[in-house]
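Good morning,

Attaching, inline, the backbone tokens for the sequence recovery test we're adding to the shared suite. The designed sequence is right after.
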């Protein structure tokens, strides 16, 4: 069983769980969670379900699930794929969602209004993505390659790669962690300014089901061969690396 929890963190000595949204197998969550800049929408990566969960956020911070944003289930050659979405980031204007595709070695952008998807290659097993404050650069941490790919968000092109997987200084980010135990999770703060601080995170009691490929796999990373992907329809537009 996995769940998404909304926490009241206004009093650090008395944190309260305000809401829990449970997901029974085969429904899933993974490490990515993010709010829209205006705080009215929230997003959570669904890992092996190959989609992004979408929530409406009311004035009290409670989440109501909406229609999900599906990711591609086939590549241009017609082969089945499961991108296994991980870390998420939302553009400052709120119209574009950036997704680290852990099993595709890729970064996808999703138009949250139309569902159109564009995808480019990054490093091995990307886990998280963060944006600069102006949204002009995205930094993708590649868990399997111990590198960071720098992406120009206007051209959606990789413009550099560092040899360290550290989160870049000065970027807007959510804090990503593995979901292998019940208390290891991705967290993000609400952007609301009119009420008490709120935190929400994905909680998992087990790892996603994956099939390991031959050879070593980085600790905490699912293999690039995984359980069957989602049956969700392919979004309107897809660009593949």
């Amino acid at each position: 069983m996995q769940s998404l929890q909304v926490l009241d963190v206004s009093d650090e000595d008395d944190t309260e769980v305000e809401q829990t949204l449970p997901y029974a197998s085969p429904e899933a969550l993974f490490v990515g969670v993010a709010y829209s800049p205006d705080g009215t929408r929230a997003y959570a990566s669904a890992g092996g379900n190959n989609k992004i969960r979408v929530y409406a956020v009311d004035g009290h911070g409670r989440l109501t699930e909406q229609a999900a944003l599906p990711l591609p289930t086939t590549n241009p050659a017609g082969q089945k794929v499961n991108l296994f979405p991980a870390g998420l980031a939302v553009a400052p204007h709120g119209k574009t969602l950036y997704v680290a595709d852990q099993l595709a070695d890729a970064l996808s952008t999703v138009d949250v209004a139309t569902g159109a998807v564009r995808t480019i290659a990054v490093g091995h097993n990307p886990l998280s993505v963060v944006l600069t404050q102006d949204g002009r650069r995205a930094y993708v941490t590649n868990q399997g390659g111990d590198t960071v790919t720098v992406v120009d968000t206007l051209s959606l092109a990789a413009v550099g790669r560092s040899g360290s997987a550290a989160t870049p200084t000065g970027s807007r980010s959510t804090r990503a962690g593995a979901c292998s135990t019940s208390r290891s999770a991705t967290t993000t703060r609400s952007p609301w300014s009119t009420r008490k601080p709120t935190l929400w995170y994905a909680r998992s009691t087990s790892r996603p089901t994956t099939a390991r490929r031959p050879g070593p796999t980085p600790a905490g990373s699912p293999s690039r061969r995984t359980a069957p992907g989602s049956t969700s329809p392919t979004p309107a537009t897809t660009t593949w690396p």
